[in-house]
């Protein structure tokens, strides 16, 4: 049964006099760098140390948490008590289970609990992973691993194609000089033209890995305005491009041209998906910027990060490719190269960032996350 706010407030009042700094702070202060919720408890279930992430999650100070019975922070206290008892009697080195964590003035949140022994008797580490955050972390890890695999695949494939391609084109040129028939010459010109087209594709595949990373001060709104002007030049009618900027976002170090290309690729894909809306005159594209605080992505926690949203009111990403849109050569448009989003993800990851996508009918939101200093 969920713990009521009244019971929770009573629990806080019971422990509000515990104001002495914990002697465990020096030993466990590194836990404050973690995004996961961590408590070090004694065999009796009393909290010896709580990290800052746990403070934030519970909505109260660590001085209030420390010295309290940690099992009372859960809707089913007995589960943690049994786990601590098993850890104290050396029945296991680590135990995992799912539970509900109680928060002040908020609904309980589902968490994955990991109970593990330390090297010192009488101390047990309890780590809590919010299940929503765990699912997000798993998704981000898949995106990072996928991008790395894509990069290796692209580089190897491009090099394997490039070498024989030069030979094919050269042989066609030599053959063209030897034949007298106009019809046969047309065939050799087709071979040369198609070889050149493949060469252009290979060059695009290799572009992010060839071009040096030119770092300078970047204003994200200048990037957005440049992309906006390019989009409006290509689609002057039937498309509304809205701006919702947080002007307090500071400049950061990055490659301006790479970021322009990344945002342009996303925006251009959106406009192509909005073709029917543009023809009807009701298509809308929105650039939105904001600051995200205490965020975790790419297995790291950042105090501040830039969020840039590129939102359109189109039909959404087809379900058949929703999980593969960042794969190379995957496109939801007839005749598309399937490289735009792959290159965008590569450029953003070179800034230690990540692109995520949420899409439903009538709203597709590509979110670019980049850590800020």
Secondary structure elements and their pairing?
Layout (H helix, E strand, L loop, with lengths): L4 H11 L9 H4 L8 E6 L4 E4 L1 H7 L3 H4 L11 H12 L5 E10 L2 E12 L5 E8 H48 L3 H29 L5 E3 L1 H15 L4 E6 L7 E3 L1 H18 L1 H6 L2 E15 L2 E13 L27 H10 L4 E7 L2 E9 L2
Parallel strand pairs: 7-9
Antiparallel strand pairs: 1-2, 1-5, 3-4, 4-5, 6-8, 9-10, 10-12, 11-12
Helix pairs in contact: 6-7, 6-11, 8-9, 9-11
Describe this structure in words.
The protein has three domains: 5-130, PAS domain (Beta-Lactamase, 2-Layer Sandwich); 136-210; 216-371, Heat Shock Protein 90 (2-Layer Sandwich), CATH 3.30.565. It is α+β, with helices and mostly antiparallel strands and 373 residues long. The mean pLDDT is 81. Helix content is 44%, strand content 26%.
Number of strands: 12
- How would you describe the shape? elongated
The arrangement of helices and strands along the chain is: HHEEHHHEEEHHEHEEHHEEHEE
Q: What portion of residues belong to β-strands?
A: 25-35%
Please give the CATH architecture of the largest domain.
2-Layer Sandwich
Mean pLDDT: 81
Percent of residues in helices: 40-55%
As laid out across the biggest beta sheet, the strand order is: 2-1-5-4-3
Structural class: alpha+beta
Cα Rg: 28 Å
Main CATH class of the largest domain: Alpha Beta
The main β sheet shows up as: 5 strands, antiparallel
Low-confidence stretches: none
CATH fold name of the largest domain: Heat Shock Protein 90
How many helices does DSSP assign?
11
Distance between the termini: 43 Å
CATH superfamily of the largest domain: Histidine kinase-like ATPase, C-terminal domain
How many domain modules? 3
